[in-house]
Amino acid sequence: VSHVSAHWRAVASTTPDLWRKVELDVVALDTISQKDRLLVFLRFVNLAHNQSGTRPVCMSITPQLNLTINDLRGFQDLVAIVRRIALNFSGRWDELSIDIHMFNSIRGSEVKTLSSLKRLTLSDKLRNISLYRLPHNLSQLNHLTLLNCSTPATRLVNMPWSQITHFGTQNVAINHLGPALRQMSALTHAHLSAPASYDGPVFQPICLLHLRDLTLSCSQAIICEFAKSLTTPSLSRFRAIVSPGPDAPRFHLLGQTLRALIDRSSAPITYLGLQHLSAEDMKDTFEGLPSVESLDLSIREDSDALNLIVNELVWKTLPHNSTESDVPNLLPNLQMLTIRRARLGGALPGIIQMVCSRLNTQLITSGVHPPPSR
């Protein structure tokens, strides 16, 4: 607000029902004293909350990235700021993004009003302690995201796992999530992103009865091992994203493993996203899945999967001397096809011809964008 005209500063400070999301970066004023910094932060947060009307507020608190356990004074200063903010405003928050150690430090009387919190994002930037005692009153919490957490999720004491319907992770080891996932009896959506390396034990079987939407973004090895252990009877939307890496070994059973996971679902798969799988794995995954309505494929530049998709999997092109016309092959209910590739090269005419034949029309609007092309 300080970098705009007086008119817009007046708008920001006087307009009711203006703010919905408040982001506080606690390193912006690190050159002034702790007392002055506290006053500035409280003034900013108070202004934002006052101008949010009666709506709930999405609050984000970003800690100092280079703060460590050795910087106890800096840590205590930060805790003092966050505690005061929580004491005054936590009753307004329905979404909160905060470092897990900050959240752990204000679990007492300061957060007694967090019963309205529905979405919580916890990051692990400070790496200060190994056991996290969360508030007992997270009765409305159903969305949970963990970012860069290095310790098992089961160390989140008092987390209401059975309430969680939407769960996401980024750069969190999947082998640390097993015990927590088994407690998520209401889970319907999960997006799990893990580091590329995996040297843990074999995953124990997990059954998620109500999971409808699953994304696995990991190395081939982790996706393969985790998919073997997973049973999802209600799964209808599935994405597998293989993390890029030139030295990653090829798992010849990846496609078959993903297909086995899909086949263990009683619900029809309507959306399927496959990114950076080989042509063979793509074919093994969705060949013979007539229920697929939306197919989203991301193809590496050196992959032969694009030719396979155009010529065989989506629309089978018969030899020129055949007396039969082109016939649908494997995906009769397909309504949307997304192809992502850095360079489509000479494949675009074939894709357009395939779509025109599929739609049985001579009119098609095609938009080709810089990488990735769709």
Structure report:
The protein has 374 residues and is an alpha/beta fold. It has a single domain (88-359), classed as Alpha-Beta Horseshoe (Leucine-rich repeat, LRR (right-handed beta-alpha superhelix)), CATH 3.80.10. The chain has helices at 6-14, 34-50, 72-89, 100-105, 178-183, 220-229, 254-263, 279-286, 305-313, 348-359; strands at 21-25, 57-62, 93-99, 119-123, 132-133, 143-147, 156-157, 166-170, 189-193, 206-207, 213-218, 230-231, 237-242, 271-275, 294-298, 315-316, 327-328, 336-340. β2 (57-62), α3 (72-89) and β3 form a beta-alpha-beta unit. It is globular and about 65 Å long. Residues 360-374 have low confidence and may be disordered. InterPro entries: LRR_dom_sf (IPR032675). This is F-box domain-containing protein.
Features of the shown structure:
374 residues; globular; two-stranded parallel sheet; twelve-stranded parallel beta sheet; alpha/beta; 28% helix; single chain; Leucine-rich repeat, LRR (right-handed beta-alpha superhelix)
Helix/strand layout:
Elements (H helix, E strand, L loop, with lengths): L5 H9 L6 E5 L8 H17 L6 E6 L9 H18 L3 E7 H6 L13 E5 L8 E2 L9 E5 L8 E2 L8 E5 L7 H6 L5 E5 L12 E2 L5 E6 L1 H10 E2 L5 E6 L11 H10 L7 E5 L3 H8 L7 E5 L6 H9 L1 E2 L10 E2 L7 E5 L7 H12 L15
Parallel strand pairs: 1-2, 2-3, 3-4, 4-6, 5-7, 6-8, 8-9, 9-11, 10-12, 11-13, 13-14, 14-15, 15-18
Antiparallel strand pairs: 16-17
Helix pairs in contact: 2-3, 6-7, 7-8, 8-9
